[in-house]
Amino acid sequence: MFAAVIGILLLVLSAQVVKFRLKYKKGLGVTDDRDFEAAVRAHANLVEYAPLGLLMLAIAELNGVSSTLIYWTGMALVVGRILHAFGMINGRGGTHWARMIGILLTWLAILVTALLLLWNVWQVYG
């Protein structure tokens, strides 16, 4: 479920970037349009954080971590990514409450999942 929602978000953000690329006939890089740059960074930031978070969640689930912990951590990751993208685009790359909350939720989800994985390894091998 988490990967599906993030996949849809990726397509929405990709469409935003394509819209600007077509508008400015710019196949690579960005112009000095702040909205264009924010769209590219919102897309790139999702690609930078989401794969690791999803991979870690999948490994934790396969290792038998509680489904309740997987669910809530996954929800934090997804909500964080949605908020970050919303804040990045609506804040035009500047400070925005959704961007800040989004990155904090993303970092929290990755940290919690990392700790769950380390705890899982310690229980098995410790």
Automatic annotation (TrEMBL):
SUPFAM superfamilies in alphabetical order: MAPEG domain-like
Its principal location?
A: membrane
Name the species this protein comes from: Marinobacter adhaerens (strain DSM 23420 / HP15)
The record's keywords, sorted A to Z, are: Membrane, Transmembrane, Transmembrane helix
Q: Which InterPro entries match?
A: MAPEG-like_dom_sf (IPR023352), Membr-assoc_MAPEG (IPR001129)
The protein's name: Glutathione metabolism protein
Which GO CC terms are listed, alphabetically?
membrane
Q: Which Pfam families does this entry report, sorted A to Z?
A: MAPEG (PF01124)
The UniProt record lists the keyword Transmembrane: yes
Where does this polypeptide localize? Membrane
Q: Which Gene3D superfamilies match?
A: Membrane associated eicosanoid/glutathione metabolism-like domain (1.20.120.550)
> Is Membrane given among the entry's keywords?
yes
TM segment ranges: 101-122
